[in-house]
Amino acid sequence: MKRVLIFDSGVGGLSVYQEIYTQLPSFQYVYAFDDAAFPYGELPEDVLIERTQYIVSLLVDRHSIDLVVIACNTASTIVLPSLRQQLSIPVVGVVPAIKPAAMISERKVIGLLATPATVKRDYTNRLVAQFASDCEVFRIGSTRLVEMAEEKLRGRAVSIPELAEILHPWRNQVDSIVLGCTHFPLIKQEIAIAFGSPVHIVDSGIAIANRVKALLGDSEGGASSLLNLTYNSAANNHVAALNHSLREMQLEAIQSLRYPKL
C-alpha cells in the first residue's frame, strides 16, 4: 500500500489531492495544512522552510510516507531543494501551468491568476520567459481569491460579482487563464462564470497527478480500505464546517498537529 503526503499552508492543496485520488484511489493519503502560519506568501523564507521541513518530516516518519507533494506554489519555489536533500523519498512540487496555457492560447494573450507573492517571484518570470516568450502575459495577484476558496469549503457561497470585479481588467483581452495557486481550482467554476466570455482555464493538478503516478506506479483495485487522514496546525475551533467538505472528499476529520514554537 503506497502512502502519499500532500502539504499546503491551507486547503488549496485539496484540489491537488482530488486529482491524485481520482487517478490513484487505492493509495492512502495524508493531507496536512499549516493554517497557523497561513498564508505562506507573507512568511520570511527561513521561517517557511523551517515550518515545512518540521511538519513534513514528522508526518513522513509517523505514517511511513512513500512520496510527498508540496501543493503550494510559494513553498515549492522555496523549500524543494532543502526538503529533497533532507528526505530519501520523492518530493513533488507545483508550478503555475504557464506552458500549457501558452500552448492553447489562440491569440497568445494569457492571464496569470495567483497570489501576490507568486506573480512577482523571479521563478515565475523564468517560467514566462521559458514557456510563454511568444505571449503577452497579464498578471493579477489576489489574496482575496484564496480567502474565497477557504470560505467555500466552509460552506459560504462565493460572490460572483466580487470575482467579476477582480477579473474585470482581463475582459476581452486574455483567452487563457492560469490558476497559479492551488486554492483557485476549488472555485474554478465560479471563476468561469464571473469571467463571462469563453476562456481556457488551466491548472497543474492533472500534471501533478500524472507525475505521482509515474513515480509510484499505477493504482490497483478500488478505493483503499485505509483511512485518509487530515492534519492542521491551528486550533480546531474553526474546522467543523470544513470537516463536512473533507468527508465528501473521502478524508477523515481534522486532527491537530501543533508546531512546537507556537
From TrEMBL:
Keyword annotations of the record: Cell shape, Cell wall biogenesis/degradation, Isomerase, Peptidoglycan synthesis
Entry binding sites for substrate: 8-9, 40-41, 73-74, 182-183
GO MF annotations in UniProt: glutamate racemase activity
GO BP, one annotated term: cell wall organization
Reaction(s) this enzyme catalyzes, per UniProt: L-glutamate = D-glutamate
InterPro entries: Asp/Glu/hydantoin_racemase (IPR015942), Asp/Glu_race (IPR001920), Asp/Glu_racemase_AS_1 (IPR018187), Asp/Glu_racemase_AS_2 (IPR033134), Glu_race (IPR004391)
Top-level class of the enzyme under EC nomenclature: isomerase
The EC number(s) this enzyme carries: 5.1.1.3
Lineage: superkingdom: Bacteria
Active site: 72 (proton donor/acceptor), 181 (proton donor/acceptor)
Pfam families per the UniProt record, alphabetical: Asp_Glu_race (PF01177)
Known pathway: Cell wall biogenesis; peptidoglycan biosynthesis
Family: Belongs to the aspartate/glutamate racemases family.
Function: Provides the (R)-glutamate required for cell wall biosynthesis.
Protein name (record): Glutamate racemase
Organism of provenance: Photobacterium chitinilyticum
